[in-house]
Write a sequence for this structure.
């Protein structure tokens, strides 16, 4: 009963993460009924991004050039390499203004349950990148989720045997955090990882 | 810092209903990193649907032909016209197998707060359609939301002065519903709209 081009659009929208049949249907009607010019623009933006974006030869983040702005910046500390899961994480670290080294973006995390193993993220490229003789410390800044932690442990073991210093960003209470409102796991970690004053 | 084609894609994804900056970013990375073929397919599906779909000349639903399957079906009761907000609502009514008349799809509802007035939904076409001399009853099946109810009242007044019978689908407890678990508003309506046995 539903026209096939409409069904195809609803099906196609389901590639978006977190979009099930109901929201795909709502999105399809919205695009067709309320915002056809936005829809055409979206189609073009997808095609343009796929045609234009590639991975930085050094750090693996998305860029339109061969080497991204950060890797091309000669003012950065080349002895430190911060490993993050996604380009958005890189942006978050940059916003702190507290890190001046270079990055490596895994474009994912180890997640055996989803079938994502070492070969599905850019691990081989990271090992090659970290073994360039200039990098001496790798700062692992994957998320503190189960998958992010597993990735961090795996990376630490693999990098340490190559003679690199491997560190992990700290866990603890957030700035302005109150003990009353923090979860017990974070508080436990904050106790274990306490620093001498 | 973010490449401009990536930024354009993130911005473009925000035309989708319920998608803010954070989920647009997540969607963009997912399309680029995990499912480029699905992304290309989505772009094509949008373009194809916009090029192919038009409104049924009689009932205003989406169709690839001039007149949709239901309006073209000669076995339907042409004296009844059921008014719904969206094509999905039409599908829901069809699934009941309890209605054999024709439809009219408003493609929206009156919503003054969102700037959607009588001119923004297909009201003029509905009035023309309902005045064809064959239709004698209009069954209003807009949603029981504030906007759907306002639309129903507006339609009822406009259609009644043209000598048409106007009815509204019933409110009440759902099939299998228990008084204990129904909201007071629905229960109150079920009392007011009680039927003689």
């Amino acid at each position: 009963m539903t026209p096939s081009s409409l069904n195809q659009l609803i099906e196609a929208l389901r590639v978006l993460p977190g979009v099930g049949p109901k929201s795909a249907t709502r999105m399809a009607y919205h695009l067709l009924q309320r915002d056809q010019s936005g829809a055409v623009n979206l189609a073009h933006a997808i095609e343009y991004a796929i045609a234009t974006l590639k991975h930085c030869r050094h750090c693996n983040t998305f860029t339109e050039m061969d080497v991204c702005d950060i890797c091309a910046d000669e003012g950065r500390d080349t002895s430190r390499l911060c490993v993050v899961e996604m380009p958005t994480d890189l942006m978050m670290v940059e916003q702190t203004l507290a890190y001046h080294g270079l990055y490596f973006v895994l474009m994912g995390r180890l997640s055996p349950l989803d079938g994502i193993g070492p070969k599905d993220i850019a691990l081989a490229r990271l090992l090659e990148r970290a073994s360039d003789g200039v990098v001496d410390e790798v700062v692992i800044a994957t998320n503190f989720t189960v998958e992010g932690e597993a990735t961090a442990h795996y990376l630490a073991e693999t990098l340490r045997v190559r003679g690199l210093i491997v560190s992990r960003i700290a866990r603890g209470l957030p700035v302005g955090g109150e003990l009353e409102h923090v979860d017990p796991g974070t508080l436990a970690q904050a106790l274990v990882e306490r620093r001498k004053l």
Chain A has two domains: 4-52, 74-168. The mean pLDDT of chain A is 89. Chain A touches chain B through 54 residues (CB under 8 Å). The two ends of chain A are 71 Å apart (CA to CA).
